[in-house]
């Protein structure tokens, strides 16, 4: 099992027990195991560090927030935002005393998701866990050098905080039907991590990019999900999202067993229409297929027979 950010904290979720209940972890790949080992051996020991005795003054929380976000981008984040941590953002049984989360995201390469699920797509998830891990560790070192204490919440591992609700509050985008955030520039193919601190920072606000409205018309991820885990309708009983919409609730009891046995699945991400909007910018000069190969026994028939792709409603976006 991977580490937790606080040695004394109980695990947020009993992953070992859970994997045992579904017949064990089936993904056993040398490249992936090496990356997991590297994260554990080379990154975890760098989670902690000395806080400078000299505290850097900032003219305002807004100026401090700008310095921190600029640093995150310089370290390789695709986006960075700041949210105030609320009790609902903390895993049950955990206790944290920091006030803010600096959320960072990093894009995964579309190229690796042209066939899903695959060794290549799973390896890309882990590559970004490593690479984004370097961003959060570097950002924490920077914050400590400014004289402020902070804690690394690694993208892979047993964090104290829930990255997704924090990222939504920090302006990363909207929650798609598939349960992942769709970012207006990075699309859905990115990973999240954070650094938490009480350094005075100006927070960001949630954004409404019209994505929730679009999801109500598009069901591509729902149709392509091999585990039938993505819902047809929103679930009013599950409470509202940060924009006041009823939530789409992904059936994790169906998703996780499939996900854990099939290279982290990920089908719902490259088939998401918002990925199509973004990939061309990502791979300028690189010839991509217009649609990933999906390793399913009975994939749904494409509705657009000319291009062989699924049909999406054309809304003004
Ligand atoms: S990861 Fe796979 S199984 Fe899980 S919701 Fe997405 S498409 Fe479905
Ligand atoms: S595939 Fe369509 S319905 Fe699913 S999250 Fe993306 S935009 Fe929303």
Listed once per kind, the bound small molecules are: iron/sulfur cluster
What is the overall number of helices?
Answer: 9
Radius of gyration: 20 Å
Distance between the termini: 42 Å
Helix content: 25-40%
- Care to count the β-strands? 10
**Could you tell me the strand content as a percent range?**
5-15%
Provide the structure class: alpha+beta
Major sheet characteristics: 4 strands, antiparallel
User: How much is the average pLDDT?
Assistant: 84
Judging from the principal axes of the Cα atoms, what is the shape? globular
Q: Low-confidence runs (pLDDT<50, min 5 residues)?
A: 1-10, 308-317
Widest sheet: strand ordering: 1-2-7-4
**Number of domain modules:** 1
Order of helices and strands: HHHEEEHEHEEEHHEEHHE
What's the short story on this structure?
With 317 residues, the chain is of the alpha+beta class. Helices cover 32% and strands 13% of the residues. It has a four-stranded antiparallel beta sheet with strand order 1-2-7-4, sandwiched between helices. A two-stranded parallel ribbon has the order 3-10.
What would you note in describing this structure?
This protein has 317 residues and is an alpha+beta fold. The protein has one domain (7-317). The chain is 32% helix and 13% strand. The protein has nine helices and ten strands. It has helices at residues 15-21, 30-43, 61-75, 119-145, 163-169, 211-217, 220-224, 252-261, 273-282, and strands at residues 79-84, 100-107, 115-116, 150-153, 174-175, 181-182, 190-197, 235-240, 246-247, 293-294. The strands form four sheets. The protein has a four-stranded antiparallel beta sheet, with helices on both faces. The protein has a two-stranded parallel sheet with strand order 3-10. Strands 5-6 form a two-stranded antiparallel ribbon. Strand 8 and strand 9 (246-247) form a beta hairpin. Helix 3 packs across helix 4. The chain is globular. Residues 1-10 and 308-317 have low confidence and may be disordered. One iron/sulfur cluster is lined by residues 176-178, 214-215, 218-221, 272-274.
